Please model this.
Amino acid sequence: MTLSTQTDSSLQTPPPPKTRRPLAITIAGLVIFLVALLYIGIALLLVLSGAVRLSLSSSQIFAPPESADLFTDAGELLAIVILFFIFGVVLLLIGIGFLQLHRWAWVAAMTWLTLSLLFELVTLYTSEETAISTGFAIVLVFMLNSADVRRAFGILRREHESAPLTPLESINRH
Model:
């Protein structure tokens, strides 16, 4: 009986080794989570403080036709709260997918960073404000484009990058 137990246990394959997530992915994922929580927190704070009323009529949201503005002050604040909440939820989903190493999350994070950088560049040129978040976004773009991060997400390697070959890759090269 002990012989059959040894045979059964020797036929089982060991579980695959857990791959370590690169530190850049953990840092970027945490930054994405913090920004998401910041967006959601600001939206909730504005609603809970009473600064934004959620039960506005359309005449309280939209400015009169003779006005040059689209929204009234209350309508503009409501639009900002809605956008902040939506941005926060989207970033939260990206952060979850990012930490779980889903390929779509890498693409979504890069797209988000690209759009935010473009928006911040336009803001920097049209106003005299400076944006510290531009520096963070640039650092995150470099982190997400590192070879280890792209490899972890299954993004194609560039020719000049050195990477260990798997047995199947070494067969396919020749």
